[in-house]
Amino acid sequence: MTIVGIGASAGGLNALKSLFAAMPADTGAAFVVVVHLSPEHKSHLAELIQPHCEMPVQQVTETVKLEPNRVYIIPPAANLNTIDTHLRLSDLEPQPHKRATVDHFFRTLADTHDGHSIGVVLTGTGSDGTLGLRYIKEAGGVTIAQDPGEAEYDGMPRSAVVAGVVDFVLPIERIAEEVARLTRVEPQLRVPPDGEELNEDHSRLLHKIFAQIRSRTGHDFSQYKRSTVMRRIQRRMQLQHVESLERYLEFLRDNRDEVRDLFDDLLITVTEFFRDQHVFECLEDKVIPALFEGKTSNDRIRVWSVGCSTGEEAYSIAILLLEELSKHEERPRLQVFASDLHERSLSRAREGIYPLEISTNVPAEWLKRYFTKENDNYRVRREVREMVVFAPHNLLGDPQLSHLDLLVCRNVMIYLQRDVQRDVIRLFHYALEPDGRLVLGTSETVDRSELFTVEDKQSCVYRRRNVPTREVDLPILSVPPRTRHGEGNRDEDAPRRGATESYGVLHERVVERYAPPSVLINADHEIVHSSTRAGRYMEIPGGEPTRQVFKLLREPLGVEVRAALAAARRSGESTRSQPVRVKFNGESRRVVVHIHPARDA
Fold it and tell me: Which domains does the chain have, with CATH numbers?
């Protein structure tokens, strides 16, 4: 049975009347309405909605079993939770500014009903519901927002739309139509449990879908768990009214935008400030203080947040580092690198703008110290934003960072196949300094005891053992990311025949203006031309020869250049990296790399 969660606040009564007046009585779904109610007054919402609804409407007063074609209304002074097929009441957060009843219910709905959940956000002020919709979407459910232009109060639906967590933005009557359609369309696709192989036909079709994604985005998902991938594909099939995997492959071939939408869905992750409180208490009390031991003002502390999504985790770590730094006379330099595959998420992370509901997780003292209030949002202060370098990075294909003191990779490995997880753990061991710390998600573990020891089992914190390890061969993929065969557009292959002369002419023009040393790279970050003195900034790695600029650049230039390249690509304008200290023949020199888009190419 599908559960439809509906969240609303100011102006919600009229919107709910209109929605249920248009909703068929036989969808087979159960509807749960969560609105902001005064805890001091009795609610008559159920009685007010009933005349406009063909289904029975009831206010929840005790634990109740969910039944199809019924509407359940939240009571005052309570939160609603789904437990299997039941609704259960829990106490409301006593502090008004920490109440996010819609987010709370949507999160429990996602946890218990995954792909059989639909989240709807209607009129209301603030941003309650935005985070909850992200949870529903990650779990494989569908998310809908009322058209902000139609809403009596556009705060809640607009927040969800801007956050990019909404599948459909619709007027009230269309919401009813879409919900009715979604409850009646069931893709003919079985999602296998973890560890179970796909049947031969589905395996063949999935391989072709991977090829489509690879040819259009450059990223290979063949090492991801089949259950995760199939669950996200099932969601896309439902949204596009497609009933079979074979037809969905045809749909992908004919619709370039759908490839991008599937790519986005495969990268959906939910993140919050200080998510899993006990983990960040461990970081604050044990791990981060240990990083400062013996450090002087001439030293640095390097941290990498892998799979950072929209930045909440990276900024949480930065805040803890700054708090610890304030306790020391010796102040080592702090470097926080945050990476993700998803460019749009990285753009939001760099902006550092978050809904008011982050106050439920961020202590008031830190909100005041590290955030400014802008309209209906909080924004991370500039000094904290500038401390974190956000850059695109493929954990399985791009060169890893090194000399790290702390590496945080939470809820990334759960999406990868077992053998790939083992390679990633070796990669992390290589990247960390002796006694460096690794933090994994609460559902993840290190199964290579010879590389790490457990420092805090509950918080999944591990200490690097000082044993030899070799660098992991990259990419950790069965097919190189830019390989194109069988599927996709052959006219995208690069470099093109006869391109060498044009690259050389173009590079000479750039060099005349900006002076050497310099290199010219293509869209795949491959060096296609270089000036005479560029070699001193690069090192040839062992193994198969490569032209990938990030594999050739000397540490720590690669990270800063990657961030600057991403900025130049977004803006289309020239930019430059942060200053980096690089050693030449034992002497440390300050290096700034300028990035100039070559529009003549």
Answer: 3-184 (3.40.50.180), 200-266 (1.10.155), 277-464 (3.40.50.150), 494-595 (no CATH)
